[in-house]
UniProtKB/TrEMBL annotation:
Domain Aminotransferase class I/classII large, residue spans: 32-385
Record InterPro entries: Aminotransferase_I/II_large, AspAT/PAT-like, NHTrfase_class1_PyrdxlP-BS, PyrdxlP-dep_Trfase, PyrdxlP-dep_Trfase_major, PyrdxlP-dep_Trfase_small
Protein name: Aminotransferase
Highest taxon of the lineage: Bacteria
Organism, as annotated: Lactovum miscens
Family label: Belongs to the class-I pyridoxal-phosphate-dependent aminotransferase family.
């Protein structure tokens, strides 16, 4: 019997993978499934990015690069952070990583000691908890719900802090709730973070996908926060570049140096070709994607409001809706009693071919996550299927 390391022992078959397998097997059986579980946009990298990648291959820009990333890409990232976010960094403070996911893992790995507490507002992207545990940290969950629009408040934050608290995980706009903090809301949290000398990991990967509000990075709020925040971002969501695997961290100098040293031993650099693509992508963001996402959001909201799902919070960012399913629990649909979010998602998939994600994957069993980063036609069809489920008719 092989015994696994304590740190990885708890990793089990991810429920997301199980759901994906089920969707794939239904598709294999010829079922027409609309899959709104995915965390990636339906658009692709800017043309300039793919051209740069092709050129990189044709000119043999295919060897190792500086393990923290090629300088022109890091320079472009610095320029973006300065112009768009008001954050000044030197290229030496940027580490280009294999997706935001690795940027996050690097950061946790260099900061967290066994037993350190990381304050984790939840519902949250499941990889936060997994990565915290992988580095020996302890997640301290703050359970959020609709009453605070899924946002942390000063009172909730203060109550969660203990002597062991080291880091606050912030994700705005959020996966899965779409909650996006305004400047005022962040300003209310800032004094508590400073008083307790917390480090902030600010995952800003959905930052460009905001609607009718301005994104503000918490690192801009004070000198303390600039010196104690690690900004995580990447190319997956805003540029439709999930498979290119490029993300980055922007960190205070001493932390950046340690992150760079860590990454150099783990993966060295991101693919040279992907870096060339990212260098161009960052100069060519297509804001029409945001308008299209907003159309999809509006369309789905209209449909959801004609069902028994309770959608009280309209998110300001990301591409997810997170309706509450309490009105559906204990009720019977298609002869089956819905006892949980899992039951609901499963029946929805079976009866009308619509795949959405159970909220319990994100520590929120009263909700479901619906990704609307699809074509408007698919979203309209999804809305129709959702309504047909509730009217009891089979699609
Ligand atoms: N943060 C959040 C909140 C995410 O949802 C994701 C992707 N699902 C990531 C980080 C990581 O994205 P990537 O590694 O593709 O950059």
């Amino acid at each position: 019997m092989i015994s696994f390391s304590k740190r990885t022992n708890y990793l089990s078959d991810s429920p997301t993978l199980q759901l994906n397998d089920r969707i794939a097997s239904l598709k294999d059986q010829g079922r027409d499934i609309i899959n709104l579980t995915v965390g990636e946009p339906n658009f692709y990298e800017p043309e300039q990015a793919s051209e740069a990648a092709i050129e990189a291959i044709n000119t043999h820009f295919t060897h190792y690069t500086n393990s923290s990333g090629i300088l022109p890409l890091r320079q472009n990232i610095c320029e973006k952070l300065l112009i768009e976010n008001g954050l000044e960094y030197a290229p030496g403070q940027i580490t280009v990583s294999t997706g935001g996911k690795q940027a996050l893992y690097n950061t946790l790995a260099v900061l967290v000691n066994e037993g350190d507490e990381i304050i984790l507002p939840t519902p949250a992207w499941p990889s936060y908890e997994a990565q915290i545990r992988l580095v020996g940290g302890v997640p301290h969950f703050i359970q959020l719900d609709e009453t605070t629009k899924f946002k942390l408040t000063p009172k909730l934050l203060e109550a969660a802090i203990s002597k062991k608290s080291k880091i606050l995980m912030l994700n705005s706009p959020s996966n899965p709730t779409g909650a996006t903090y305004s400047k005022g809301e962040l300003e209310e949290l800032a004094p508590i973070i400073e008083k307790h000398e917390l480090i902030v990991i600010s995952d800003e990967i959905y930052e460009r996908l905001v609607y009718e509000m301005e994104f503000v990075s918490i690192a801009t709020l004070s000198e303390y926060l600039k010196e104690n925040t690690i900004v995580i971002n990447g190319f997956s969501k805003a540029f439709g570049m999930t498979g290119w695997r490029v993300g980055y961290s922007a960190a205070p100098k001493v932390i950046a140096k340690q992150i760079a040293a860590f990454q150099s031993q783990i993966t060295a650099s991101v693919s040279s070709v992907s870096q060339k693509a990212a260098e161009q992508a960052i100069l060519n963001f297509d804001s029409s994607h945001v308008d299209r996402l907003k159309f999809c959001q509006d369309s789905l909201i209209t449909d959801i409001r004609q069902t028994e799902l309770d959608l009280r919070i309209i998110p300001d960012g990301s591409f997810y809706l997170f309706p509450n399913i309490k009105p559906v629990l204990s009720k019977t649909y298609f002869g089956k009693i819905i006892n949980s979010d899992l039951d609901f998602c499963s029946l929805l998939l079976d009866k009308v071919g619509l795949a959405i994600t159970p909220g319990s994957f994100f520590n929120a069993p009263n909700n479901v996550r619906i990704s609307y980063a699809k074509s408007l036609e698919e979203i309209q069809e999804a809305g129709k299927r959702l309504r047909s489920f509730f009217s009891g008719a089979e699609a």
